[in-house]
Amino acid sequence: MSVDEGVQVGDTWRELSEDDPFGLQTLPFGSFSARHLPGPRVGVRLGDAVLDLTAASHYLGPRYARMFVNGSLDRFLASGPDTWSHVRGALVDWFRNPTYHDRIDPLMVSLADTKPRLPFTVADYVDFYASEHHATNLGRLFRPGQPPLPENWKQLPVGYHGRSGTVVVSGTPIVRPKGLRKERADGPATYGPSRKLDIEAEVGFVVGTPSDLGTSVPISDFERHVFGVCIVNDWSARDIQAFEYVPLGPFLGKSFATSISPWIVPLEAFGAARVAPPKRDPKPVAYLDDSDEEPGGLDITLEVELSGKVISRPPFASMYWTAAQQLAHLTTNGASLRTGDLYASGTVSGPASNERGSLIELTWNGERPLRLTDGAIRSFLEDGDQVTIRATAPGPGGTTVGLGEVTGRVRPSV
Fold first, then answer.
1. φ and ψ at 71, to 5 degrees?
2. Are 46 and 12 in contact (CB under 8 A)?
3. Which of 216, 228, 238, 221 is nearest to 268 (CA)?
4. How many CA atoms lie within 13 A of 170 on its CB side?
5. How far is C-alpha 366 from the geometric centre of its chain's CA atoms?
6. Omega of the bond leading into 247 within 30 degrees of 0 (cis)
7. Residues 340-384: pLDDT tens digits?
8. Which residues neighbour 240 within 8 Å (Cβ) at sequence distance 6 or greater?
9. Is the peptide bond before 282 cis (omega within 30 degrees of 0)?
10. Catalytic: which of 134, 161, 225, 329?
11. 134 in active site
């Protein structure tokens, strides 16, 4: 029986509720620290507890103990899909089989007693622009009277290379960036803190198995290379971005910080969430043609909360380009993959006004401000604002797969 067949969260001795999004159907991996434990640890979340896999891995054998000893997922990611599946299967057996409970129960840590760490070393970071609704909204905002989508948008997944060194784990404060921006189109550029600090609700994909320089990764090899999924907030300074992006695209308006959720959910957990992507017109070129592949879309629902109020629920199933197509595109020129590469979907936005994944869309660049729970008005983020993005997906047998959340609070410029 496969890991996800017949999963019943109630089968564990932890007495999880049937609707817990972190039952056996999920089992995400992360890195954490705790006051009573030495150094960083690799953990696997089950409900509101975390298994200290760094300590428990010796039950898997010496090879696996070495894999988790430094408290990072790096070695595990590099080990490849057979090992990923074996470890996941062993964890399900441990949690189900009473034979193991006396051994692993002392190694369970309350989630409340842990502090999340960046779970892997980010090698390269690529951000895409794969939502037709998001791209169309921004085109209408900034190119009125012209076609909202550029000519190439439906022929290839548009993206850019970001800054891996500023990818941070959920909970890390976000310092308001400074840069050159214009108050008026006909006025001079001035330097100072961004006045249009924004969010982008995205889904991220974590690469495990590398590829050779000079080779391309086909769509069919997606699951050989990508280990799992996380939530991404690609913080964006819209005013800095608007002044700098011609002719080479995003730079300082994006590179100051990108937040990711602390739990990386294995691709194996998303078997019940597979959906067909939207119909493509024109038909993609050969290396992007997924018509003969398993459906590459994922039915992930995001929820964006600003200072306590849910302001949007973007649907990832509506994304025009899939994660497998994005992987094929970023390697089609022979660029190699490295263990720890992270690539993000781009802002997730749906067709409805309450499904937009950025403030620039939700407020139509400030023309239609939002009213928060306490009566405050927001067009863009102010100092002290906290943004939380959550996500879930359907799991096997009517369960729910939880991706957790990514949170960040804005601090003043320094």
1. 80, 10
2. yes
3. 228
4. 25
5. 26
6. yes
7. 999 999 999 999 999 999 999 999 999 999 999 999 999 999 999
8. 177, 179, 180, 181, 194, 252, 253
9. yes
10. 134
11. yes
